[in-house]
Amino acid sequence: SSEVRADATGTPPTVLAHRGASAYAPENTLAAVDKAAELGIKWVENDVQRTKDGELVVIHDDNLRRTTDVEEVFPGRAPWKVKDFTAAEIARLDAGSWFGPAYAGARVPTLERYMDRVERHRQRLLLEIKNPGLYPGIERQTLKVLGNEGWLDRSHLGRLIVQSFSADSVRTVHDLKPAVKTGFLGTPAVADLPGLAGFTDQINPSYGSISTGYVAAVHAFTGPHGKPLEVFTWTVDDAANARRVAGYGVDGIITNKPDVVRDAVRGR
Ligand code: G3P
Ligand code: CA
User: Fold this and answer.
1) pLDDT at 7 > cutoff 90
2) Residue of 44, 128, 165 with the most ligand 1 atoms within 8 Å of its CB, for mutation
């Protein structure tokens, strides 16, 4: 569309499927990754947390209730926190029926299984360390799993970004593996950007919180890999807002409807 400004290079923003293509398949499941692939979307976003027995699993809430049948399967186990269930227990849960009967039997994936599927589709991964305060050491553990799966090899590094709402968590990831690209979720004050730019490559704000001026202010700082800080914004699900934030010059748009956003910003 003609009113949409491209960024400085004229490239449309990268489109990322939020929790997979989560408007069309249950979030953070293999089905949501498959759906993104089917739509031709290269980047998927997901959330990682940890079970009682130390397994990394892909789920957004710190609680299993909203996206699984945990209350039926384990009625006596309120308040149904992810961290209070073993991986074997979580593997029994149905993480698809809440979304629709076609997805009955979908599971909460382990991080390994999720990455295997992303790899099979040759997709790229924006991995969010969710609620790190609940899971001491999750940054090191996540990097270990990524490494085991080959995602820290030089050939894979361009396909991976690790992000968090916790600046401490982002800094820890950067300190442990400086080669890994990182993102800080939020809309920090411009005065805080110089400090953040020491360990994060991206500032990833909600779309309602930004403007052309803010995006330009972020771009003016250089990140730990010697490039301007990038902005990936979330969660934009309609064409008008996608065009608007593309006009602000954002580098990426995180969306539950990646087909809608791609069509809105393509061909600029
Ligand atoms: O990737 C951005 C977005 O996922 C942050 O919010 O709550 O969906 O994890 P949330
Ligand atoms: Ca997320």
Assistant:
1) no
2) 128
Q: Does the residue 182 lie in any domain?
A: yes
Name the residue with the closest Cα to ligand 1, atom 2: 234
Give the pLDDT confidence of 81-116 residue by residue, as tens digits. Answer: 999 999 999 999 999 999 999 999 999 999 999 999
Regarding the beta carbon of 139 and ligand 1, being less than 6 Å apart is answered: no
ipTM for the predicted complex comes to 0.98
Query: Residue 84 domain-assigned?
Result: no
Residue 101 per-residue DSSP state? G
Number of structural domains (the chain) is 1
Residue 232 in any domain: the answer is: yes
Measured from the Cβ of residue 172, the count of other Cβ atoms closer than 10 Å reads: 21
Judge whether 92 lies within some domain: no
CATH number at residue 186: 3.20.20.190
Q: Which of 150, 144, 170, 149 is nearest to 50 (CA)?
A: 144
Residue nearest to atom 10 of ligand 1 (CA): 60
How many CA atoms does the CB half-sphere of 148 hold within 13 Å?
A: 11
Does pLDDT of 186 surpass 90? yes
What percent of the chain is helix, strand and coil (3-state, nearest 5)?
Answer: 35, 20, 45
Domain that holds residue 260: 14-61+110-265
Band (8; pLDDT cuts 50, 70, 90)? low
50 within 8 A of 138, measured Cβ to Cβ: yes
